[in-house]
Amino acid sequence: MSERDLVAQALSTALEGQLSQEEILSLLENPKSKDHGDVAFPTFTLARVLRKAPPMIAKEIEEKLPKEGFEKVEVVGAYLNFFLDKKAVSEATLKAILTQKEHYGDTNIGLGQNVVLDMSSPNIAKPFSMGHLRSTVIGNALANIMTKIGYQPVKINHLGDWGKQFGLLMVAYKKWGSKEEIEKAPITELLKLYVRVNAEAKEDLSIDDEGRAWFKKLEDGDEEALELWKWFREESLLEFNRIYEMLDVTFDSFNGEAFYNDKMDEIIDLLDEKGILEESQGATIVNLEEYGIENPALIKKSDGATLYITRDLAAALYRKRTYNFAKALYAVGNEQSGHFKQLKAVLDKMGFEWASELEHIPFGLITQGGKKLSTRQGKVILLEEVLAEADKLALTQINEKNPNLPNKELTAHQVGTGAVIFHDLKNDRLNSFDFDLKEIVQFEGETGPYVQYTRARSMSILRKAEFTPDENANYSLNDTQSWEIIKLLQEFPQAVIRASEKYEPSVLAKHAVNLAQAFNKYYAQVRILDENEEKQARLALVYAVAQVLKMDLSLLGIGAPDEM
Ligand code: ARG
Predict the structure, then answer these.
(1) Least enclosed by CB within 10 Å: which of 316, 331, 499, 563?
(2) What residue ranges define each of the domains in the chain, with the CATH number in brackets?
(3) Is the beta carbon of 332 within 6 A of some atom in ligand 1?
(4) Range in 183-192, 441-450, 466-475, 521-530 the model is least confident about
């Protein structure tokens, strides 16, 4: 039970049903200063209802309050200040972490149901962008978090491997491409072709027509078009897979847009049967005005070609049938929120109740020097290079701090790449942020390396003390220095649930930073290894910190080296 639950329970007993547990919880505050205890309850709301002076109410409640679990409860003006029983809370918290270990904080909220995560989903023949990085790491963290609360995640890479741009790319390849060059550096070469063909198509309208014709051939199963398409796809996947390996992210399915090519007729037939298709200037659309959506969903173009949303409709139906998901989450940039509104609305209009289980998980842009990055002009950062550079920066710092560390390369990779992931997850996901690698890989500040370094420090203390926790012992601490840590340790299970409810991995990144900071303060103030009767309890605290920091990191998809 969290400290707030404990307080709310006591208050609800004292209030004899005048306020519900939930109302009480919503009124509880964190006192500004530690002298005012751990949790405060203001009585103004009650005072209005009961038409009595707040301080008087505070006193009355205090008299009826059960005192178990509290060191003391003070009335200060209109407030009741609760001081928790540090000994009891620390004992229960340490016991839970030391016995449950990596299962501390596990719940079964999800009841084993499937959650489909549409994540990463880069586009074939185009570079893996920073946006795709965000989708990958947010999706992966959410999969871990959903697992922790008892769901079964299904991670789907909805590859952008279909669409008009492939027609254009074929035109470009036939005009200017070279097989050898592409095999040497597929994405770089394909991107060059893509940028050139887009530029020339602006001048020469016939190129666009040619592109459309090639894409039509592809949709109709023309052999040459299919062959080229397959080759572009394979070469691109080779590069993407290298990135996934660096990020240590795996998928349950790579069914991309092309996979739905033969599943589109059914969707169009269904839409037709329900009578919701309309013709508009030769195209086929679904009107969504009744959903407050101005733009109709464009299902089929005048030449019969299907669109992004048509494939997403087919994908949603296929996923419902295949995985019977309880939720379907789409980790995709904020700029596509219009698309997902349309998608949900069309499914709803088709009469699928499960449309409400689809949820777009949007996120902000990564900018550089305050500017947006765009592929179409060829302005991109190659992610593989970014990660390699991050690892290199981490290695430089390790060489300064701990040159004799065994397995330096592996640790540098965990730290460097972990730093990029952490930076991506530490802010509320809707925030845009600037990407400055040097800052990201710092060992100080609110960074991934700082959290990892703090945990490595706690591991080194444990090694020095040769400490192994005794699962039968009752470790407890009563001092104010350790209390700040105990409270954070105790909040971890709640943090996991909050992260899952808001689809917000940053809750855990922030928890990790707070815990690391609290531990470093403790480390500076307390002589942990001094011999006295509290030593074992202090070491149990260090052990618990190491355990929980590792869980925070691992839920975010980041490794935790024991030494660095
Ligand atoms: N390939 C798309 C892009 O790069 C993202 C796909 C997102 N997933 C989806 N089901 N639409 O913009």
Answers:
(1) 563
(2) 3-84 (3.30.1360.70), 114-255+311-372 (3.40.50.620)
(3) yes
(4) 183-192
